[in-house]
Specification:
The chain is of the alpha+beta class. It has 17 helices and 24 strands.
Length: 588
């Protein structure tokens, strides 16, 4: 690590630096210097001012000369200066012309191919125009006013305001002062013109540095993972404080419990008349930030609380766990074909069609990995946990953070698991599902696999079938598989793999759920499991009951609910969303 980075790391991440110094996490933080710089950048990125903030600074001059570096390659590119130079292609700008956006839907009237069909227009001339946008956006034009794209909120991919405080097009007064909002005016070789909000261009610049910073902001790392005995280390960073101040300006952010997860009261999410309350945002925010939360004080679904008879349970759609799921995902429960929209994990199941319905231990895994689109969130409502149930603790480990760590500790194994597809299988009476894909998915990019964002992990040992690989890859796959499993499964005893074992021990969350608690976790990011359990003969039935009621939500529906809520809270403050494990990257 460079000498310059050491004090920076200590300033923004004191707890991480302390642990590095004390070697309390020898495997987790055995990182190269550039990986540590990534984590420093992660904290600093949320502290960087936006362009509109920096234009008022005394040491930043965003005049016409400094913003436009030059037009090159015969007009096919233009370079702008946002502290660092950023190149934009004529094809990219032409395809993102605000005039090509249909209102109010935001759909595009032009396709990228039409730039080719229209003769590949080039940039003939360009200039920066500074505009003062009135609070009252008059539609009257004069020689001193022009129509410009309305400023967008921070999550908007459209080049003009489709939603938010501004109209799509606003009448603005041209201002010579560089403290006003800058717009890029382009004259094309085909005599047409375009105008772009420079802040929007800055947000979507695509040079190497910007893509790297975008990756660092969203990639799940060990610092984001829930610990065995505490919240993620990220929770103690300056970046976490900055984010909480943006999202919770009243200083009312929920606290992490002693078990490392945020606990949210059911009644803060679902009202007595069934309406959704403000606690729903808190629930979603910490699921997407930490990977899991616990909802407490959840009502029982039984009309007779001393019974475990499903025949006297309330209707599925009225169950508390169903209400939570529907609140999270816009009104829908998902993936109910095999086990029902609502399923029960109970002691004493006969002829169980899933090992989860027995008392056996369950190794860390994802549910329904044999689906093309696996469930997003899984909800498990503990409705009974008798005092004579021995064992049965629920476990979690962050698979995406573990994949990041595998890349550090066993780069060859990591590479193998990104290239060799496993076979996931669910076949029994009434079910015939198979799906092949690698265990680790990466963002599409031309850089090395070691510099690409981890976008998904697929791991479910109980539901894997025969490999279909070239013969020369088979042994290499099994070696890589063993390394990753040792990193994920705290119960494996392999003395020669202590660096992997120490990670599993440090990052495996384990706790016996209590009646009235709902464990909710991101099934795409977190692996869940269970310790085996026993019940002695002769105990009272209610003392030997272990009963969880569960369901799933779709990842896209749930993420949409969260991001809309995040926008409504702070439309102008950038808050990074960690990768949710759905095989893509968060944009912007």
């Amino acid at each position: 690590m460079s000498a310059a980075i050491q004090p920076l790391l200590r300033r923004i991440m004191p707890r991480v630096a302390d642990r590095l110094a004390s070697h309390r996490h020898p495997s987790c933080y055995r990182k190269s210097a550039h990986r540590l710089e990534f984590m420093c950048r992660l904290s600093l990125s949320s502290l960087q001012p936006t362009l509109s903030e920096s234009t008022t600074s005394n040491d930043t001059d965003h005049n016409n000369t400094s913003l436009i570096v030059g037009i090159s390659d015969g007009g096919s590119r233009i370079t702008l200066n946002f502290n660092d130079e950023s190149e934009f292609h004529a094809s990219w700008l032409w395809s993102n012309d605000p005039q090509g956006v249909v209102l109010p839907s935001g759909q595009r009237t032009t396709t990228p191919a039409q730039w080719i069909y229209n003769g590949r227009p080039t940039i003939h001339d360009a200039k920066i125009v500074y505009c003062d946008i009135d609070k009252e956006e008059s539609s009257k034009l004069s020689t001193e006013r022009i129509n410009v794209p309305g400023p967008t909120v921070n999550d908007c991919c459209h080049p003009l305001a489709i939603y938010g405080a501004h109209s799509p097009w606003v009448s603005a007064k041209v201002d010579e002062k560089d403290s006003s909002r800058p717009y890029l005016f382009i004259a094309w070789s085909d005599k047409s013109t375009s105008i772009y909000d420079v802040e929007w261009l800055q947000r979507f610049q695509y040079n190497d540095k910007s893509r790297l910073e975008r990756r660092v902001r969203s990639e799940v790392q060990p610092i984001h993972a829930v610990l065995k005995n505490g919240p993620p280390l990220w929770n103690n960073t300056a970046a976490a404080d900055k984010e909480n101040n943006v999202i919770y300006p009243a200083k009312d952010a929920p606290e992490h419990g002693d078990d490392g997860l945020v606990h949210i009261d059911y009644n803060s999410v679902i009202g007595q008349d069934g309406e959704f309350r403000d606690g729903l945002f808190n629930l979603l925010h910490f699921i997407f930030r930490d990977g899991a939360v616990i909802v407490s004080n959840t009502p029982s679904p039984f009309s007779d609380h001393n019974s475990d008879d499903v025949n006297i349970m309330i209707e599925d759609e009225s169950m508390p766990v169903a209400k939570l799921a529907k609140a999270m995902a816009g009104g829908a429960i998902s993936h109910g074909m095999l086990y029902g929209d609502i399923f029960h994990v109970r002691t004493g199941e006969r002829n169980a069609n899933n090992v989860a319905y027995t008392s056996s231990a369950l190794c860390p895994h994802q549910d329904l990995a044999y689906y093309e689109s696996t469930p997003g969130m899984q909800l498990l409502h503990c409705v009974a946990m008798g005092k004579d149930v021995v064992g049965g603790e629920s476990t979690l480990i962050d698979a995406m953070a573990a994949a990041y760590q595998l890349r550090e500790l066993r780069p060859k194994s990591f590479e193998t698991l990104t290239k060799c597809p496993a076979t996931f299988v669910k076949q029994r009476d009434g079910a015939c599902m198979t799906y092949r894909r690698p265990h680790i998915a990466l963002a599409e990019d031309r850089c090395s696999i070691f510099d690409r964002e981890i976008t998904a992990v697929h791991w479910s040992p109980p539901f894997e079938g025969p490999l279909c690989l070239p013969p020369e890859d088979v042994d290499e796959y099994y070696e890589a598989y063993a390394d990753f499993e040792r990193l994920l499964n705290v119960d494996m005893d392999v003395p020669s793999e202590k660096d992997l074992a120490s990670y599993a021990d440090e990052f495996t969350w384990k706790r016996k759920l209590k009646p009235g608690e709902v464990l909710i976790f991101n099934n795409r990011r977190m692996l869940h499991g269970r310790n085996g359990f026993t019940v002695a003969d002769g105990v009272k039935p209610q003392d030997g009951r272990r009963h969880l009621v569960g369901c799933y939500t779709n990842i896209d529906d749930t993420l949409n609910t969260y991001r809309v809520g995040l926008r409504e809270r702070q439309p102008c403050s950038p808050v990074s969303v960690l990768n949710v494990g759905n095989g893509t990257t968060i944009v912007p």
